Amino acid sequence: MPLSSDERLQQVVDAQKGLLNNSTYSDLKIVCRDKIYHVHKAVVCPRPSFFRKACATGFGEAHSGEITLHSDDSDLVKMDDPQLVDYMVTYLYCLDYLPLQPASEPDKKTRMCRVHTGGAHGEIDIKYGETYTFCVPNSTLATTMRAGTPDLLPPPPPPITPETDVTIHSKMYALGDFYGIPGLKAAAAAKFEDAA
Questions:
Q1: CA–CA separation, 105 vs 111, rounded Å?
Q2: Which domain holds residue 90?
Q3: From the first residue on, what is the mean pLDDT of each consecutive set of 10 residues in the chain (196 residues)?
Q4: pTM
């Protein structure tokens, strides 16, 4: 039986979600303060006019494959706010920007992380007191750390709470406007109305 148009759309969205945390075919870096997003031009350039223009021939970003986000100190909404940029990148891949809630807290004595071993990625148990080399997600840098340090991996962006959701949605609307992402503006406006 053929798939419905909704099922086909869901398959496309699911495939893009799979690319979000997988830099295998990444051909563009978005640098936001100390975070690097390994993204895919085929995903981020069609919708936001900012990224499409930055990757156009003749601009330095087209040759370097890297876009660095900046914000003026006078900006009311910081266009390089790491939390907002996390949500924006998530939106570009998933068509939504609410962060995923963790299923459960990891055991304090064992944490899971992605490991880079000769081009293969996998998961291993990290035990306190042992040393491991691993790749930080969304980064090409391999890092060696001694387990037992407070934060082996950068924490995920904080979930949107009832006290902050109206503020976040208004900032996401501004971000969508600044970067030329009409769908993000529409999603933020709808979420703002639902939360207000």
A1: 9
A2: 5-99+159-195
A3: 88 85 87 90 84 81 85 74 91 79 40 43 48 45 44 53 76 92 94 84
A4: 0.63
